[in-house]
C-alpha cells in the first residue's frame, strides 16, 4: 500500500535506532551488492539457474534429467528444508525491536536487577505479538488471546517476559496444558476450525473446567478482538518474585499499558477484515513504526510483600486470578517503545524463542504451578523447533558475554579456542561468579510439607473473579460478551456442549446465562446457580484505559472522492492530518486520476486515488472524510459501493467527516430517523453515534476531535 504522505514520512523515519542488539544483528547482515552475480551456497558462480542439466536428444526433444547436476540438487535440497516446525501455540505472529528504560531507581527497594532499577540504562528489547490458536498462515483479526512476548537484552543476560494481552489463564496447573491446547486447536479428525474457538471441543473442555470461566469471559470480551497490537495491555500473568540487594523477596505481577489506550474492533469488522486483509495487525505495526509513530507502553509492577501472601481470598499464585488494582496498586516504574521493524521475518520473528525460565539476577519465580511447568516447557520446545544451539541464533543470543562449558550439538556456531571445556580446571576458566559479583542466586526458601498431587482450597474457587470481571464491564461491553458467547456456542452442534456451558454462565450471571441460552437454544435456567456478589473494579473494563493524551497519530483516514470533488478541501485535510501523523488514503471510483471540481478535464488538476472503492473497504480505516462538490455528491449518491462505504463505516461507529453537498449525501444514505448530525465535534451526538457532518464546522478538525474526544472502545 502507498500513501503519499505516509510513504514520505516512512522513508525518512524507518530504522532510526541502533541499539546494542541491532548492532549485534548487523554482524549477520549479508551485504552483497545487487550487482553481485549468483553463486551456489558454497560460493561458486552459477551460469544458469533455470535449466536443469539434461540430455538434449538427437530428435530435438528434452531427454533425461541428470542427477549429476549438483547445482540443481543443491537448489532443490536446500529449498526442501526451508520450513521448521511452527510453534504448537502462538504460531502466527509479528515482531519489532525497541528499547526499555526505568524512570528512576524506585524499584531498588524490591529488586537488585539493574534492568529494573538503573535509570541511566537503555535496554534493547524485541517483542513478538501473536495469536494463539491459528497456524502460521491464519488471519490476524480472529477472536483469541494475543501473545505479548518480550525479550530484554540486558547486560546481565536475556530476560524473557512471555506475556499475554489478558491477565489470567485458562488453567491453573501446567500439567493440563496439553489437554487444553488439544481442545482449543482444530479438531483432530478434520483439522477444523482454523484460528477460532467456536467449536465443540473447546467449549466441551472449558465447560468441564470451571477454572477456565474467568479467562473465557475475558476472551469473549472486546479484549479478544484488539484494534491493534499497539493498543493492547500486556500482562505477565504468572506470579514472579523480585529479590533485593538484602536478599528480601516480594511477589510481583508485570503490567504493560499502552500509551494509545486499549481499543478493540467490533466483531463484524473482525470477520470482514479476516478476509479483506488477513495481515491487518502485522501491517498496522509496521506502518506505525515506519511512519515514526512508535508504539509505547508504560511498564508497571504489582507488589505483594511476603508477609501478605495469604491475606487475600484468592491464592496469589493462582494464574486464573487477577490481583485487583483496588487491592494491589500498580507501580509504574518504566516505559518501552518499539521503533524498528525487522529486516527479515524468518531469522528474527520466526526464530526468536522465549523461555519463562530466562530471568536475570534480582528476578525469580514463585511456586505458581503454571509458571513452574512453563519453565520446564519452553526450553524443550525450542530444541524441537531450532535445535540445541538455538541460543546462538542471532536474534536469541545475548548482548553480554556468554562463557560456559556447553559444547558441540547440532549447528554449533561458536568456536571456543583452547583445551578447557570443563570446570574446575587449572586456569579457573569459566568459574562460577559469587552473588556479590552478579552471580544468580536462588532465594533461600524454607519448604516443608507432604509430597502429593493436590489442589489447595483457594485454588478450588472459580467464579468470584469471573463475576467481578463481568460486573465491571459497561453495558455495551456486556452486550459484546453476550454476542460473542452466542456466536461461539451457535457453532457447537452438540447439545451437551452448548447446554453445558450455560451452566457455567449461570454461576457468573443469571441474566447472561438466560440471554445466551435463549440465543443458542440451551436449557434456560430458572434461577441463578450462585448469588452475584455485585462487586466491581473499574480497572477491569478497557474503558479505564482510554489514553491519557488522546491522539489521532497513526489513525487511518479514508478520503472518499469522485469526479467533481473539492480539491482544496482534500489537500487541506491531508496536510492537517499528515502533520498530526495520521495517514490518509484517497479512495475513488478508480485507481487513477480523479478530476476535481471546476477542473478542466483535458488539462486536469484533480488527484490520483490510492485505491478504488472495490480495492479497499471501510473496515480497514478508523474514519472517513468526504469533501464537498456538487457533481461529486451526485456521483457518490449513485455509486452503490460508495454508499456502502458510508453505511458500513457508520455501522461500525466510525467518525465520518463530510462537507457541504457531501454532508447532505451522508444524511440521505444513512436515512436513519434517529440519527442526529453534529455541527461540532463536541456535541454529545458525536460520542453517541460517532458521526460528524459539517456545514460551518471544519471537517478536518471534526475528524481530529472525534478521534480525540471519543477514543474509547467502540
Ligand atoms: Fe505459553 C508459547 C504465553 C502458558 C507452553 N506462550 C507462548 C507464547 C506466549 C505464551 C506469548 C509465544 C512466544 C513467542 O512469541 O514465541 N503461555 C503464555 C502465557 C501463559 C502460557 C501468558 C500462562 C500464564 N505455555 C503455557 C503453559 C505451557 C506453555 C502452561 C506449558 C506447560 N507456550 C508454551 C510452548 C510455546 C508457548 C509450547 C509454544 C512455542 C514456544 O513456546 O516457544 O512452549
Automatic annotation (TrEMBL):
Pfam families the UniProt entry points to: Catalase, Catalase-rel, Catalase_C
Cofactor annotation: heme
SMART domains in the cross-refs: Catalase (SM01060)
Protein name: Catalase
Gene3D superfamilies: 1.20.1370.20, 3.40.50.880, Catalase core domain
Domain Catalase core: 39-431
Keyword Heme listed: yes
Similarity section: Belongs to the catalase family.
Organism listed in the record: Psilocybe cyanescens
Lineage per the UniProt record: Eukaryota, Fungi, Dikarya, Basidiomycota, Agaricomycotina
